[in-house]
Amino acid sequence: xxxxxITVLPELIKSPFEASILKRAIEKGLVEVHMHDLRKxxxxxxxxxxxxxxxxxxxxxxxxxPLDKIITDLKSExxxxxxxxxxxxxxxxxxxxxxHISLKENLMIICGHYKGIDQRVRDMFITKEISIGDYxxxxxELGAAVLCDSIIRLIxxxxxxxxxxxxxxxQDGLLAPPVYTRPAEYKGHKVPEILLSGNxxxxxxxxxxxxxxxxxxxxxxxxxxI
Length: 226
Ligand code: ADE
Description:
- Belongs to the RNA methyltransferase TrmD family.
- The protein is an alpha/beta fold.
- Helix content is about 35%, strand content about 20%.
- The chain has a five-stranded parallel sheet. A two-stranded antiparallel sheet has the order 3-4. Strands 8-9 form a two-stranded antiparallel ribbon.
- Helix 3 (about 65-75) packs parallel to helix 5 and helix 4 crosses helix 6.
């Protein structure tokens, strides 16, 4: 997979790719991530990328011209499966969307700022609009980092024990069951007996029951979808 990220703040989105699982995925060649500084495509000697909105109102809008230039440049080099715009009015990211996008080869992600990007950029180029939740961030960068993490960890080979991504919360529509590690007892708090029994079918059943119970308690809305 190759991901091209267009941003006015490349420094804001670098670090998630420089540690742990994402770093290793890049080192193993399973994903390439390229940051593109939109300011380099800015207009005039100030490298302007935003302007006042037509019709008046508070807040600047990211201009069409720099975005058109950089998107067109990138598209001339390869075909993109999706050109994604990070925005609070997009489709809310969930595991199903992450699974779907993780199967793609080439992705472009546009990070918005201020009041967002000129609507004509959305009309001309954007194939998917994604929000990471019902709150407004200062820009799309942190959302893009969240999206990238959620999809890169699903690429086969990124997580060493492949089944581990498959048993994440949400993969089967349920929250994950509780997990424990050593010691078996700590300050009087014991690990459930069943997990020490070695009875694998019984352990599987216990985990499923726990996942269902946890989902009922915390996210009953997920069960109504099953
Ligand atoms: N940009 C600003 N807020 C956002 C959000 N909630 N999700 C994605 N991108 C955003």
